[in-house]
User: Fold this.
Amino acid sequence: MRRRSLAPAALLLPLSLLLAACSATSSASSATGGAGGRTDGKGSLTLDVGDQKGGSEAVLRAAGELDDLPYKIRWSTFTSGPPLLEAVNAKAVDIGAVGNTPPVFAAGAGSKIRIVAASHGTATGETVLVPNGSPLKRTADLKGKSVAVAQGSSAHYQLIASLKKAGLALEDVDVKYLQPADALAAFTGGKVDAWAVWDPYTSQVLRPKKGRVLTDGDGVVNGLSFQVAAPDALADKEKAKAVDDYLKRLRRAQDWVFKHPEAWAKVWSKDTGLPYEVALDSVKRSNGTRVPVAVDKNVVTSEQEIADTFSELKLIPGRVRFGDYVDRRFNGSLPPSTTEPRTYGKES
Assistant:
């Protein structure tokens, strides 16, 4: 593994994945039992897992990691990270996957959550897009222009960080707070000058050549995503043991995705309705590049800067101490968070 430091603290941001880097303003829509109400595994212990469409259950199943479970998994499906973490706080879910921003907002709300695992991926799918015919050539050209972004999302912070790198502040642009579906319509309809977003939306624009990248998150964002658990579940010895096994299966499944991008893209396409080519682009650019890493000091420092930024913007109340929400018992022998993400076409 090659190694590099995470980006400077002031320029850090959550990673981009449709099913993980979700807006803090997304509405909740959950259905227990996800994917047709299926419960996987055997035994007397049940682990309640929060998921998102095309997320953990899909990748575990595709990788064959649900074939020999010594405990049961009851899946609950959510539209985004924030309502999933609300369920964790309410003890309705034992563990679930989210991007960087939802834990910050959950912590700001005083939720009872614990960060138990992390992964680090490339950030080239985290972009600010402009239409093909746009006269904008660099980030500084966004001054005075309209930019669509989901409020409180990973893309929101990515926009802030990219503007700062270019010598601008958020107030220097005309921010249009729109959820991805509405932002896509505004972008393709010429209603906004730019769109700050994550993969697979980036791939949905680039594959049919409906726009181009003005700037991306490479070297600007931290590319982290998390598994978040309920403290009560971790206090139960048998459930904690199941959580440990579950995390190990997810790590093996992540390796499987990297080695089998085409197979995973087919599964992801079927689960989400994405065109196969778009799914494959996103897998290779973002989704399949993740490396499981330790929840270490660098992770805490990185997330603290994100939390401080949103506190300064008055989007979360008071100051969040992100380290108070971390449980490092499952780190094991995982590499540090400075590990280089996997990139297709290069050795990892």
